[in-house]
Amino acid sequence: MLDVRDLRKEYRGAIAVDGVSFAVPAGGSLAVVGESGSGKTTCARIVTGLEKATSGTVTLHGSVQMVFQDPYQSLDRRQTVRGCLAEVLAHHGRDRSRLGELLDLVGLDRRLGDALPRQLSGGQRQRVAIARALAAEPQLLVLDEAVAALDVSIQAQILNLLVDARAATGVAYLFITHDLSVVRHVCTDVVVMSRGRVVESGPVERVLHEPEHGYTRRLVASVPRPGWVPRRAVNRD
Ligand SMILES: Nc1ncnc2c1ncn2[C@@H]1O[C@H](COP(=O)(O)OP(=O)(O)OP(=O)(O)O)[C@@H](O)[C@H]1O
């Protein structure tokens, strides 16, 4: 459904993305992971048409929507949840009666339809952003660090919602994250990027348990295990 071939992006001579290829089948879920600056966001922006590639091809069968890290930035502060979703439904010629179903799909109480973004928690706002993206009934959702700004417990709720939404709608995900620990819940396959290149790719379970590349091994090693406790401050004076 999405086929990215030999993507390259240069910014004034600096190479941000260098020969990147990956594919997402219809209804599939691919994670793109890597440290800050590895070129993930540039790939996502090219896939969604926000950025133009220097060379390479993006073939997409169907429509695409994007969910960003910070929904507070992407939501209109003066628009209620209901107003925001109704606008997208109308724009795409969908029936307004789907509004309630959308709220149910993302686990938002229907009574929150009249709320403004500032009256919602960070997790609730991200639910609205996901509902807004799904309202257009896209074939592909690009999620760029969509849970990075949330507390870990809220992250888990949003990840579960994403799993359920994919099962319910058949939408495919391109899930961009620096955090390998969130990948397992949502994605079946992963592409690992470092310095603009793909260093490893494959099924999530294989890459997490038998990483082949040294960079991937370091990423896996930096993921906190269950029971992990942050080290106390060393200086106790
Ligand atoms: N508009 C731009 N102009 C110049 N350089 C850019 C631009 N956008 C990105 N870059 C550079 O391209 C490289 C890849 O950036 P990109 O944002 O794609 O990485 P990333 O892995 O998504 O990192 P982050 O998670 O920090 O966004 C970086 O070196 C970055 O500085």
UniProtKB/TrEMBL annotation:
InterPro entries: AAA+_ATPase (IPR003593), ABC_transp_ATP-bind (IPR050319), ABC_transporter-like_ATP-bd (IPR003439), ABC_transporter-like_CS (IPR017871), P-loop_NTPase (IPR027417). It comes from the Bacteria. Residues 2-220 form the ABC transporter domain. It comes from Actinoplanes xinjiangensis. Belongs to the ABC transporter superfamily. PROSITE patterns: ABC_TRANSPORTER_1 (PS00211), ABC_TRANSPORTER_2 (PS50893). One of its GO terms (biological process) is transmembrane transport. This is Peptide/nickel transport system ATP-binding protein. Keywords: ATP-binding, Nucleotide-binding, Transport. GO terms for molecular function: ATP binding; ATP hydrolysis activity. SUPFAM superfamilies: P-loop containing nucleoside triphosphate hydrolases. The keyword Cytoplasm does not apply.
